[in-house]
Amino acid sequence: MSLLQKDTRVAPRTGRDQQIASIFAFATCGGFKGKTEIQVSCPKNPENRTITAAFGYPFRLNQAAFQAPPGVNVCDVEWRDHVLIGDYSSSAQFYVTFAVFVFLYCMAALLLYLGYTGLYRDSRKLTMTDFVVTLVATFLWLVSTSAWAKALTDIKIATGPNIVRELGPCNQRVTCHFGSVTSMGSLNVSVIFGFLNMILWGGNAWFVYKETSLHSPSNTSASHGQGGVPPPSGI
């Protein structure tokens, strides 16, 4: 098998890896739903009651209001007027939207690689465009994942024990204790897959680069010269 044939088989395999990794990236982030629970006790009634704030993608925490159990008046406080702190939708949506676009691009690229390999190899513009897109995608994976990782750190702080100090009633006549928060393991996985995608795209840039005229600019001219032009003497 020639070197050219080996390179032909690299692109589809790498495209599938990137496609699968992008699916895990946006699915683990975009499908998350969680809640924060706080134990509340009143001066007149020391029995603990639980108030809950539900949150999820796209993590507009400033719209996640606390809710008391249905039909229960907890310490004569309108808990729906109190929300979590922060809006991290820009970082989360940037990350998920980019991952979806990458998934769609991988589908189109696989169709090109598998169905129109000859057209892809014979066109300098297509190979160069693919190379540029690969470099841009690698950079954007780094940017989007870093931004999302920072936002995730802030989300963990905003939904953790620190929220007790931010609730007005808890600093006045009501005794509050942090209860629990939903595990964010899947969100941690989304960050891991973000950096994994960056590595996959960065590694694939070498294979795409070998298809461009930057790596072997003489291949095209040599192929055009195969129709009877003799090689230089002395070779």
From TrEMBL:
Where do the MARVEL domain residues begin and end?
A: 6-213
Give the signal peptide as a residue range, or say none if absent. none
Q: Would you say which domain of life the source belongs to?
A: Eukaryota
Topological category with respect to the lipid bilayer: Multi-pass membrane protein
The answer to whether the entry has keyword rRNA processing is: no
Instruction: Kindly list the GO CC terms recorded for this protein.
Output: synaptic vesicle membrane
TM ranges are: 94-116, 128-149, 187-209
| Entry keyword annotation includes Amino-acid biosynthesis | no
Protein family (similarity comment)? Belongs to the synaptophysin/synaptobrevin family.
Under which name does UniProt file this protein?
A: Synaptophysin like 1
The organism named in the record is Equus asinus (Donkey)
